[in-house]
Write a structure and sequence with these properties.
single chain, alpha/beta, Alpha-D-Glucose-1,6-Bisphosphate, Chain A, domain 3, 7-stranded mixed sheet, 6-stranded antiparallel sheet, 22 strands, magnesium, metal ion binding, metal-binding
Length: 455
């Protein structure tokens, strides 16, 4: 395994690549040994999704750690947030084998320290990569005198009980909910989490199938929620929920089959979490969530804190500020009471509790939290990211009444609109998000910026 190949699979926050072309079980074994060494662990917990390559890769990772004397707890099939639960509840470093919504030939590893603390490029992943590169060339490290014991443990029911204990679902009215699991891990977790709740569950694509025969398990792509939207309308359901492949993200559809903005869900959950905490607390939001998020947080007594995009920045800021909740435009939702980790399932339970606690439809409930016209994320393929971004900055830098900042890409804000332009870390793309007080203004600003970006 050449160093150049490894550079292709070790990303900013995780490991991800094509199996077996870019990595395989022999390399997974080295990653297991390196993870054990960098975390200085006596014991770790390992889980995996439904991809065909996941069981073998996760077992190999466990072998690598066990060879160095580390005890390994295998929790088997699980969602990513179920692995975070195990890491938090057992207070062990953890590794989750998944490539989330990537196509079937991909796989990856999301790693965390004890208590679900993230492992990223600057918090251990860089060191792990260096060790694996070294061992790939010179051979695996010498085994310990005694190998660590490997045991199996089922955490699904404990995970479900923990989540239900964080949301008051007593007394909610019966609801009909369509859930599209996309043949991913939601098909494994939803039945247990929803058990005993007054819900009529209409399951879609609950069969675990890592080849994704029905659609890509990425609900942020509108093409992948078309089936769910149709089914919600056909069933006369109260709402629909769509999970991604490893079921850590959840996207919500209202009773009309219309998608609910993740910013509106962030605002709704923030209001509920603030109420749970006596109307006090810090709420983290990234810089491309809607204006409505900090507004709602302030209206409910909380302190909004704006961060860069990305789970490592959110989790870092949550730990620093003691925040009770954090949300992103990408439908990742983070909870202090879930070790600052992200769990779309807990956000879904909040939506069910909010909807079931009153008589109106979901569309009316979320209207309070969805106040502005947004473009959604628009990607443009460009040859010169820096040059195009500089051209946009130059076009707006001299104008009166505008505020510019570069916390993450370029954000330009006026009294009645704002936009953010960010470069992708992995592709030759510029990502544009625009929001305004009305649709006409949003369209005008969007088109003006895109004309510069696309030359």
């Amino acid at each position: 395994m050449a160093v150049a190949d490894l550079s292709q699979i070790v990303k900013a926050y995780d490991i991800r690549g094509v199996v077996p072309d870019q990595w395989d079980e022999s390399l997974a074994e080295l990653f297991g040994a390196a993870f054990a060494q960098v975390t200085d662990a006596d014991a770790i917990v390992v889980g995996h999704d439904m991809r065909p390559s996941s069981p073998g890769l996760s077992r190999a990772f466990g072998r690598g750690a066990a060879a160095l004397g580390v005890a390994v707890t295998e929790i088997g099939l699980c969602s990513t947030d179920q692995l975070y639960y195990a890491s938090g509840a057992l207070n062990l470093p953890g590794a989750m084998f998944t490539a989330s919504h990537n196509p079937a030939q991909y796989n990856g590893i999301k790693m965390c320290r004890a208590g679900a603390a993230p492992v990223g490029q600057d918090t251990g992943l860089g060191e792990i990569r260096q060790l694996v590169e070294q061992w790939a060339e010179s051979g695996a490290p010498a085994p310990a005198a005694t190998a660590g014991e490997t045991t199996r443990r089922d955490t699904l029911s404990d995970y479900a009980e923990h989540l239900r204990g964080l949301v008051d679902l007593t007394g909610i009215r019966p609801l009909k909910v369509v859930v599209d699991a996309g043949n991913g891990m939601g098909g494994h977790t939803v039945p247990t989490v929803f058990e005993g709740l007054p819900l009529e569950l209409v399951p879609m694509y609950f069969e675990l199938d890592g080849t994704f025969p029905n659609h890509e398990a990425n609900p942020l792509d509108p093409a992948n929620i078309v089936d769910l939207q149709k089914r919600v309308r056909a069933e006369g359901a109260d709402l629909g929920l769509a999970f991604d492949g490893d079921a850590d993200r959840c996207f919500v559809v209202d009773e009309r089959g219309e998608g609910v903005s993740p910013s509106a869900i962030t605002a709704l959950v923030a209001a509920r979490e603030l109420a749970r905490n006596g109307g006090k607390g810090t709420v983290i939001h990234n810089l491309i969530t809607s204006w409505s998020v900090p507004e709602v947080v302030k209206e409910h007594g909380g302190d909004p804190v704006r961060t860069r995009v990305g789970h490592s920045f959110i989790k870092e800021e949550m730990a620093k500020t003691g925040a009770i909740f954090g949300g992103e435009h990408s439908a990742h939702y983070y909870f202090r009471d879930f070790w600052n980790a992200d769990t779309g399932m807990l956000a879904a339970l909040h939506v069910l509790a909010a909807l079931g606690g009153q008589d109106g439809p979901l569309s009316a409930l979320v209207a309070e939290y969805d106040r502005y016209a947004g473009s959604g994320e628009i990607n443009s393929t460009v040859g010169d990211q820096a040059g195009r971004a500089a051209a946009v900055k130059a076009a707006y830098a001299g104008r009166d009444g505008l505020a510019l900042d570069e916390l993450d890409g370029l954000t330009v804000a006026a009294e009645d609109w704002w936009f953010n332009l960010r470069a992708s870390n992995t592709e030759p793309l510029l990502r544009l998000n625009v929001e305004a007080r009305d649709a006409d203004t949003m369209g005008r600003v969007r088109d003006e910026v895109l004309a510069i970006v696309r030359g």
